[in-house]
Amino acid sequence: MNIEIPVMADVTAKGQQPEFLFWVGCAGAFDDRYKKVSRAFTKILHHLNVNYAVLGKEETCTGDPARRAGNEMLYQMQALTNISTFTRYNVKKIITICPHCYNIFKNDYPDLGGHYEVINYTQFLQTYIENGTLKITSDKFADKSITFHDPCYLGRANGEYAAPRKVLEAIPSTKVEMKRNKSFALCCGAGGGQMFKEAEKGNKEVFIERTEDALETGANIIATSCPFCMVMLTDGLKYKNKEEEIFNYDIAELIVMAMGW
Q1: Quick one: which of 229, 235, 239 has its CA closest to 191?
Q2: Are strands 52-53 and 20-23 parallel, antiparallel or unpaired?
Q3: Are residues 207 and 97 in the same domain?
Q4: Which residues contact residue 57 at a Cβ distance below 8 angstroms, ignoring those fewer than 6 apart?
Q5: What is the DSSP letter of 189?
Q6: For the residues 149-155, what does the mean pLDDT come to?
Q7: Helical H runs in 131-205?
Q8: Could you give the 3-state DSSP secondary structure of residue 197?
């Protein structure tokens, strides 16, 4: 699919107002593995003819890592910069592919005057699947078993457990739950700034235990919907020497693969 990505500055210069800002996020823009997720979701947006734009070079970090690590001043500087940019482009609706971005836009930015309709991409996809616009008829994964890992900032932080599962249900395959799921799901080990620091003393790292939860299901595929979770569970599969048998894909990637794009 040859796709031209609409950039907010270019679109508004033409006198147009996109309905959605697609917030790519730091991982989606810079991490080689998660760039694939950004591309996958972009393909879906174009397939659905969604009126959206990205900020491109004007996008900066939300400030989530800074706030979780305790640097409140840096967080507020980053947040206020983004709010100023959103105001300039009259942004009302934001779609995120990272639960950390989703959480901070939805729950923290309003304290600084940033009020938006914030939509996680799994919620966005659920809407199009339920109204029949996005249909997946491929049997590419019919013989595969998929287990879903709940990201903390989508699940426990915001109570969203249904959307990612509804999207996965639309992909013909077998679904299996880990013994710890939904509100009882175990963190991947990267949240709260842990991604950026060395492991603390203990008998076992969190990502290893969570990977073991996934392996116990016997699933062929671990589905994730968070860049932090993807990094940790991919590392867990490598640690267990399972990376050539069991694969970690984002939900958006699974849809694109099922559609044959």
Answers
A1: 229
A2: parallel
A3: no
A4: none
A5: S
A6: 97
A7: 162-169
A8: coil
In terms of Cα–Cα distance, which of 229, 247, 58, 234 is closest to 153? 229
Could you tell me if 138 and 170 are in contact, meaning their C-beta atoms sit under 8 angstroms apart?
no
Q: How many domains does the chain have?
A: 2
Q: How far apart are CA 16 and CA 236, in angstroms?
A: 45
Model-wide pTM > 0.85: yes
Q: Please give the angle made by the CA atoms of 121, 31 and 192, to the nearest 5 degrees.
A: 70
Distance in angstroms (rounded) separating the CA atoms of residues 142 and 136: 12
Both 119 and 139 in one domain: the answer is no
Dihedral in degrees, nearest 10, Cα atoms 102, 106, 110, 112: -20
Q: Which domain does 78 fall in, by range?
A: 8-126
The separation between CA 15 and the C-alpha centre of its own chain, rounded to angstroms, equals: 30
For 247, residues 6+ apart whose C-beta sits below 8 A from its C-beta are 220, 221, 222, 237
Q: What is the pLDDT of residues 25-63, one digit of tens each?
A: 999 999 999 999 999 999 999 999 999 999 999 999 999
Tokens 């490598």 appear where? 238
Domain boundary among 106, 126, 146: 126
The DSSP letter of residue 143 is: T
Neighbouring residues of 31: CB distance < 8 A, sequence distance ≥ 6? 227, 231
What pLDDT band is residue 191 in, cutting at 50, 70 and 90? confident
Average pLDDT of the chain is 96
Place of tokens 């080689």: 32
